[in-house]
Amino acid sequence: MSLTGKISTELPVYATADKWFHIFSKKLHHVQHVAGKVHGTKLHQGDDWHTNDSVKHWTYTLDGKTVTCLESIESVDEENKRIKYNVFGEAVDDKYKTLKIIFEAIEKEGGKAAIKWTIEYEKLREDVHPPYGYLELYDHIIKDVDAHIVEAEKDATK
């Protein structure tokens, strides 16, 4: 059995890929206010939320438990609307040697969009399960944030 793996999920969204990428590249700290499974986040290290040397502390619900982790940005690809994060700390370090989360906002035909999350991981031991709970968490975040964006757009047109 391999200790490394990659899993992903892709969900269609109503908001444009540009809006999604803007939120995750410039306004990530707002996610805690609209995603039900995210209980809070704060800047743990650094001066700016969106630089590679900053570290954020997240509190969230994973597999029915409230847990915390730290996250930093590994890379930002503006052309492909892709951000790669390193996740580590309490909820991660006892199970995974590495846990990388890749966010991608994808343009689809007809003005549609989708959000794809890919998780690249290396488990510490064979008895550790792949991090499917994170895919479920990110699916919830996508639905909550998308509903918020759509509602904000409705309010803006009133």
Give the helices and strands as they follow along the chain: EHHEEEEHEEH
- Order of strands, widest sheet: 1-7-6-5-4-3-2
Q: What is the assigned CATH homologous superfamily?
A: START domain
Shape: globular
- Kindly estimate the percentage of residues that lie in beta strands according to DSSP: 35-45%
**Could you say which structural class the secondary elements and strand pairing correspond to?**
alpha+beta
Helix run count: 4
Helix amount = 25-40%
In the CATH hierarchy, the third-tier topology is known as Alpha-D-Glucose-1,6-Bisphosphate, Chain A, domain 4
Radius of gyration: 16 Å
Mean pLDDT, to the nearest integer, reads 93
**Number of E-type strands:** 7
Distance between the termini: 56 Å
Count of structural domains: 1
Largest sheet: 7 strands, antiparallel
CATH class reads: Alpha Beta
Structure description:
The chain is of the alpha+beta class. The chain has a single domain, classed as 2-Layer Sandwich (Alpha-D-Glucose-1,6-Bisphosphate, Chain A, domain 4). Helix content is 28%, strand content 44%. It has 4 helices and 7 strands; from the N terminus they run βααββββαββα. The protein has helices at residues 17-26, 31-34, 90-93, 132-157; strands at 4-13, 38-45, 55-62, 65-77, 82-88, 96-107, 113-123. It has a 7-stranded antiparallel β-sheet. A hairpin with a 2-residue loop joins strand 3 and strand 4 (65-77). The longest helix is centred in the C-terminal third of the chain and has 26 residues, at 132-157. It starts with a strand and ends with a helix. The relative contact order is 0.23. Belongs to the MLP family. Residues 2-152 form the Bet v I/Major latex protein domain. One of its GO terms (biological process) is defense response. This is Bet v I/Major latex protein domain-containing protein.
